[in-house]
Amino acid sequence: MGKMRAKHILVEHKFEAEDLVRKINDGTPFEKLAQDFSKCPSGKSGGDLGEFSKGMMVKPFEEAVLSLKEGEVSNPVKTQFGFHLILRY
Questions:
Q1: Distance CA 39, CA 66 (A)
Q2: Domains of the chain, CATH where assigned
Q3: Distance (Å, rounded) from C-alpha 80 to C-alpha 57?
Q4: Please, which residues have CB within 8 angstroms of residue 48's CB and are 6 or more apart in sequence?
Q5: What average pLDDT does this structure show over 45-69?
Q6: Which residues contact 38 (CB under 8 A, 6 or more apart)?
Q7: Which one, of 45, 47, 38, lies nearest residue 10 by Cα?
Q8: What phi and psi, each to the nearest 5 degrees, are found at residue 35?
Q9: Most distant CA pair in the chain: distance in Å?
Q10: Using CA atoms, how far apart are residues 53 and 37, in angstroms rounded to an integer?
Q11: Residue 7: left if φ>0, alpha if ψ -120 to 50, beta else—which one?
Q12: Per-residue b/e over 38-76, b at no fewer than 16 CB within 10 Å?
């Protein structure tokens, strides 16, 4: 497995992540939500984490990325940092 690319939105609570899923489903751009709501510094750049290799991200995050097709958004993923919505690209 080579490099992966993903954007994410990090929030504190599952209900926040679920609310953002609804907004995405209603057509709000992922990047705009990342800028407005993400607690990660990557939010400023639309949640873009760029390219990374296997083993660089915490396991639940990496497993979620690997399970997504390009252009697909994950359900909320819990890590020690909070809840992530992940967009693989």
A1: 23
A2: 4-88 (3.10.50.40)
A3: 12
A4: 7, 31, 42
A5: 97
A6: 8, 9, 10, 11, 47
A7: 38
A8: -65, -40
A9: 33
A10: 26
A11: beta
A12: bebebbeebbbbeeeeeeebeeebbebbeebeeeebbeb
Find where tokens 């992922």 sit: 30
Q: How confident is the model at residue 2 (pLDDT cuts 50, 70, 90)?
A: confident
Write the Ramachandran bin of 87: left for phi over 0, alpha for psi from -120 to 50, otherwise beta: beta
pLDDT digits (tens, 9 = 90+) for 7-44: 999 999 999 999 999 999 999 999 999 999 999 999 99
C-alpha to C-alpha distance for 87 and 30, rounded to whole angstroms: 8
Question: β-pairing, 77-79 with 48-52?
Answer: unpaired
Q: What is the pTM of this model?
A: 0.96
